[in-house]
Amino acid sequence: MASSQPPEMRHRVKVRILVILASLLAFLAIFTSWIDRQLLDTNEWVNTSGRLLEDKEISDAVAT
C-alpha cells in the first residue's frame, strides 16, 4: 500500500496539519488564560464591570 503522492506533498500536508493544530492550541491557551483571569476571578469581574458601568455612555446603552 504505497502512497501515490510524492514525499514532498505528504510533507506539506503534515506541516499544514501541524501548523493548524499549533494555532488552535495557542488560541485555546490564550482563551483559557483570559477565562481564568476574567470570568473565574470574582474580584476581577466586579472591578472590570464596575469600571465599565461608571462610563456614562456604557451605562446609558445598558439602561435602554
Topology of this protein?
Blueprint: H1 7-39, H2 42-54, H3 56-63
Quick tags:
0% strand; single chain; 3 helices; mainly alpha; 64 residues
- Major sheet characteristics: none
Distance between the termini: 66 Å
**How many DSSP-defined strands?**
0
Overall mean pLDDT stands at: 89
Please state the CA-atom Rg, rounded to the nearest Å. Answer: 23 Å
Descriptive notes:
This protein has 3 helices and no strands. It has helices at 7-39, 42-54, 56-63. The longest helix has 33 residues, at 7-39. The chain is mainly α and 64 residues long. The model has no long low-confidence stretch (mean pLDDT 89).
Write a concise synopsis of the structure shown.
The protein has 3 helices and no strands. The protein is mainly α and about 60 residues long. It starts with 6 loop residues before the first helix and ends with a helix.
